[in-house]
Amino acid sequence: MTPNRRTPGTHWRHHAPGFTHDPHTLRRLLDALNRDHPIDFATISSTVAEALAAQLTPERAWVDVTTLRLRGHLQRLLTEYDGDTVAPATLALHRDAYRLLALCDTFDAATPPLHTYELMRALAGTTRSFADLHAAEERDR
Fold first, then answer.
1. How far is CA 80 from CA 4, 37, 77, 83, in A?
2. What is the C-alpha separation between 61 and 67, in angstroms, rounded?
3. H/E stretch holding 68
4. H or E element, residue 96
5. 71-79 long-range CB contacts below 8 Å, 24 or more apart?
6. pTM (two decimals)
7. How far is the CA of 61 from the CAs of 54, 56, 115, in angstroms?
8. Of all helices (H) and strands (E), which one includes residue 99?
9. Please, which residues have CB within 8 angstroms of residue 101's CB and are 6 or more apart in sequence?
10. Which pLDDT tens digits describe the chain residue by residue (141 residues)?
């Protein structure tokens, strides 16, 4: 046995992973990762139900995590929706969703807990409405 083989892994060369910085390659990679992954309405509805459950002021960490999950669900629903955006109700829902997502970017650790809680509940309501709209579009196809 050689001295380098006595310690496992010492004879392996270490290469740091390299990532592309080309925007076209990154876009193709992200499109390939998002392809053929249906929207999980069960996960969305359970997250919305947790967020809308009647609670006294919950912990800030839980509110932040739930808000992050709701943001992800809403962004996914917005990117996947290809239905009618001419109807006034649908257009208002789109406007509300984008306004709430933009508002999420302005909140930080200094934001009062009640404001973040109200934002989370507003995101949950909009996400539920958008999921219902998306599910209705899926049924009509």
1. 53, 11, 5, 9
2. 10
3. helix 60-80
4. helix 88-106
5. 71/101, 71/104, 71/123, 73/43, 73/44, 73/47, 73/48, 73/127, 73/131, 74/100, 74/101, 74/123, 74/126, 74/127, 74/130, 75/101, 76/39, 77/39, 77/44, 77/127, 77/130, 77/131, 77/134, 78/130
6. 0.71
7. 17, 14, 14
8. helix 88-106
9. 71, 74, 75
10. 555 555 655 555 655 556 666 777 766 766 666 655 677 888 999 999 999 998 887 899 999 999 999 999 999 888 887 667 778 888 889 999 999 999 988 888 888 988 999 999 999 999 999 999 888 877 776
Tokens describing residue 66: 């739930």
